[in-house]
Amino acid sequence: MLALPAMAQRLEQSPNDTSALRESIAAIVNENVITQSELMERFKLTLISSNLPDEPAVRRQFLPKILETLVDEEIQLQEASRLGITVDDTEVDMALQKIAADNRIDGDLRTYIAAQGGSIRALEHQTRAGLSWLKIIQRDLRPRVDVTDDEVEALIERQRSRSGQQEILVSEIFLSTDNAADAPKAEQFATRMREQLNQGAPFSALARQFSQGVGAAQGGDLGWIAEGQLPAELDQALQAAQDGELVGPIASPNGFHILLRRQSRVVKAGDAAETSVAMLQLMADGSDQAALIAQANHIRDSMKGCEDMATKILVWPEWRLNTLDDQLMSRLPKWVTPIAALQKLGEWSAPIPTNKGLAMLMVCARNAPQGPDREMIANALGTEKLEKLARRHLRDLKRATTIDLRWQG
Q1: Where among 268, 284, 301 does a domain terminate?
Q2: Scanning 48, 116, 171, 407, which has its CA 20 to 30 A from the CA of 148?
Q3: Residue 39 sits in which domain range?
Q4: Phi, psi of 225 (to 5 degrees)
Q5: What is d(CA 128, CA 220) in angstroms, rounded to the nearest whole number?
Q6: What is the CA radius of gyration of the chain?
């Protein structure tokens, strides 16, 4: 970047070039210059990643937002410099390798971009700015985020209460508005972006380039969202849409949202009724109940464990062995359920009189449904809080920054 004092010296030393140099300035952020060539390099990078055509209409739609992104990145880089945070070339290389892998690009990403006329400088600058901002967030903001056990438990309870309801797999492009004056411009850009999506522009690529939402780095992925989890205006639009359908732009108190309803499913909350069991059942019938009970007690004491039981029981021809695999607790007879739930694994139950004779049961395995992952839920809540805190922090930095936008389009 060219500092203002150096730029002033160039203006004084080359008066004939003054007009050209001034025209090359897209924006000044504090004392650092963003040139029009840098703006156009980033625009070209956006075209490559999103498969958009280089047309006048596309330039009008995207260049203002790209310049805003470059200003944000310059602010982030200046803040990282102030804090003594650096990103070395190895970190940039690793990030580019991951981007290539995520986008199924064979070989080196720099080579891929260069082959399509893209700027390696623009690619590395974008990556370095993103990594710098991530380090600021992790070092200075994450320690300020706290997720309580009560918050985790409340979310788990909400998930349980939604058993049988619909969940939707959602991607989002979110454009924030810092104040009411920004709303018309943000809405206009969101509308133009929706037009490009309608024409086939990849949702994930535009989300990575422009979204300011939680899932921007993952191509806008928000994961599975249950009814009522999003603000009402977003939730209602999603519920009315079909799988694969775009929704929005929709206004919210924080900005504008474009949503992609990717898939839907019915929530299944884990409970005891969904536990399955593998069991062995011994049955014997005969008139001498006392003798059978004595045999049953001997079997209980001498035969432990499910393995090779079919062979072991041959010494007791009066008893028939049945194998019961993957039996849902909810479908077992009521007299079997307590044994299936409580009997120690690998041990026979007490003999039970039935209308078909004397029965004993052995539980070999219980397969309970996976309950909510508390750590995963806590991480999700923490990420949401951290994203909000990061947006607020960037907004505060922008307010404290001198920004001079020169580019007029």
Answers
A1: 268
A2: 171
A3: 4-142+401-405
A4: -120, 130
A5: 20
A6: 32
